[in-house]
UniProtKB/TrEMBL annotation:
The keyword Nucleus does not apply. One of its GO terms (cellular component) is external side of plasma membrane. It comes from the Eukaryota. It comes from Cyprinus carpio. The lineage of its organism: Eukaryota, Metazoa, Chordata, Craniata, Vertebrata. This is TNFR-Cys domain-containing protein.
Length: 212
């Protein structure tokens, strides 16, 4: 598009020239100066969608992670970063180019360490465990195995040496009992033998006296 370099006169027609770089003129208007091209400022959440030409202004668009807070002539003039949900919250609605993100607090019994999604506390009983520490909006409950389960493993290990000792004592008792029984049998056998010989000697002695 052209701008007016010199207005027409009685002898000369209007003289025009092209817009210099960085300016534009979108329609004929008889202006002596072109309009300045718009800047898309990144710090304001904008980027260049299409560059400025001599007949068209720069087109800006909203950066990812931002939403527009100021519109003018159907274009965003200024954008702002989306809200970031804090721990203990979840994102109810993600942000868009036109709307900010919406955060809500986690209800009781749920937690969110990152601020993205609320997760229900772990049910320790469903895992056959006991709850040793209560949860919060940012931390899950703490579950530990039941003590009974631990004792079920420890008790057999602890009783094994005791059973071994009892078995050894019982074997020693049986061995001593058998030894005592054998000794008693030998004693009675020897005693019976002595008595037998005494009886024979007594009978012989009586017979000898009778003959005399």
């Amino acid at each position: 598009m052209l701008l007016v370099l010199r207005d027409c006169s009685e002898n000369l027609s209007t003289t025009c020239k092209p817009c210099p770089p960085g300016t534009f003129m979108s329609e004929p208007n008889g202006l002596h100066n072109c309009l300045t091209c718009r800047n898309c400022v990144e710090s304001q959440g904008l980027y260049i969608q299409s560059k400025c030409t001599t007949i068209k202004d720069t087109m800006c668009d909203v950066l990812d992670g931002y939403h527009c807070i100021d519109y003018s002539d159907s274009q965003c003039r200024h954008a702002q970063k989306h809200s970031v949900c804090e721990p203990g919250q979840e994102t109810k609605r993600p942000g868009t180019k036109t709307l900010d993100a919406i955060c809500v607090n986690c209800p009781h019994g749920f937690f969110s360490p990152s601020g993205l999604t609320c997760t229900k506390w772990t049910d320790c009983t469903s895992r056959n465990e006991i709850q040793t520490e209560i949860g919060s909006s940012v931390k899950d409950v703490t579950c530990t195995p039941k003590r009974r389960g631990r004792y079920g493993l420890i008790l057999p290990v602890a009783l094994t040496p005791l059973f071994s000792i009892i078995l050894c004592l019982w074997l020693m008792y049986k061995s001593n009992a058998m030894l005592t029984s054998v000794t008693a049998q030998k004693y009675h056998s020897a005693r019976n033998g002595v008595n037998h010989y005494i009886n024979i000697f007594g009978n012989w002695k009586n017979a000898t006296l009778q003959q005399s």
